[in-house]
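Page 42, continued from yesterday. The earlier attempt failed because a stray header line got pasted into the input along with the sequence. Redoing it now with the clean sequence only.
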Amino acid sequence: MIIRNKGDIFEIVNEGKERVELFWDKKASKKQLGDWGEIQAGDWLIRQGVDILHRNWRSGHKEIDIIGRQSDVLIFIEVKCRSTSIFAPPETAVNAKKWKNIGIAATDYIIKNKYFGKFRFDILAVTITPYCKQIMHFKDAFHRSKTTLY
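This time it went through. C-alpha cells are written below.
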C-alpha cells in the first residue's frame, strides 16, 4: 500500500491485494460501480478516523453520499467513482450544479439537526483498474472551488 500526502489531498494506491476484475468480467452498471466506490470511500474514511453518521442522506431529490464527523467538524462528502481516468479524473465530475445541490441538501441537514458548529465539504475520488484501486481525498473541496454558497 502506498499513501501520499499532497497538502490536504490524500491518496492511497493499490490497497491490499483486492482485484476488481468483476467490473470488467460482469460488465457492472454505473450504479454498481458507484455503490462499490461508496463502500470503498466509507472504509477509507473510517480508517482516517471519521465517524460515519449517514450514507445516501436525502433532502427531496438531492443527496449527500456520506455525512461524517471528525473531532468537532461535520463533513459532507461527495463520492465519485470511475473505472478509468483517461478522459477525466472522477473529481472533475463535481460541477457547479452538483455543488449547488450539495449545498442545498447540506443546509437542509444543518437546519433539521439544529447544528451550529464547523463543517466542510470533501470529495473522495475512487478510480479502479483490474489490478489497482486509487482513492484521492480532497478536503474542503467546496471552499477551494470556484463555486461557493454565497
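Notes: Strands lie at 2-6, 9-13, 51-59, 62-70, 73-82, 118-129, 132-138.
Reminder to self: strip header lines before submitting.
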